[in-house]
Amino acid sequence: MKDHRDWNDSYREGSMPWDTGRPSAELQRVVTQHAIHPCRALEIGCGTGTNCVWLAQQGFTVTGVDVASLAIEKAHERAQAAGVQAEFLTADVLALPELKGPFGFFFDRGCYHAVRRSAPQAYAPAVARHLAAGARGLVLAGNAREPHEPGPPVVTEEQLRGELGQAFEILDLREFRFDEAPGVPVQFLGWSCLVEKR
Fold it and tell me: In CATH, what number does 4-197 get?
């Protein structure tokens, strides 16, 4: 995983190919189609807070965490501008502090596939300890069937099932395409993985 300075540099330089400036279309689809009702929600790797703001607008009580302090500053500003309440803090997913949980839902658009490059077995247990029994989560990750350079880190179906399966039951796993970001006219192939805490 990159160190904190690398991630902050991305935000400082405006080099954020993952930041579309819009809530994830796949998050919106899953919350609607799977009838995920408002509850305490955690976004891991929340970036500038776009998805946290959308969840708060749907009635969720939202906490967003990101390893980059500059991203968290921008997330605070975005929530304030949108007139919604959300809590944001700078933290590493593998060493989260005590949070205002337990959470009934979590969302991860791209943190897992970055973390797993150096700690593939550590992610699922680190997240699960902050979740309520039966909590659900949506993990969006790059798909190894279409590796790109540059592009998101990728994971195979076997790796994803083995790593997330340590702490979660996989309810729905499907391929999807990430939303385009400004200046990145590619919709990268990804995995959309809906999970439930065991």
Answer: 3.40.50.150
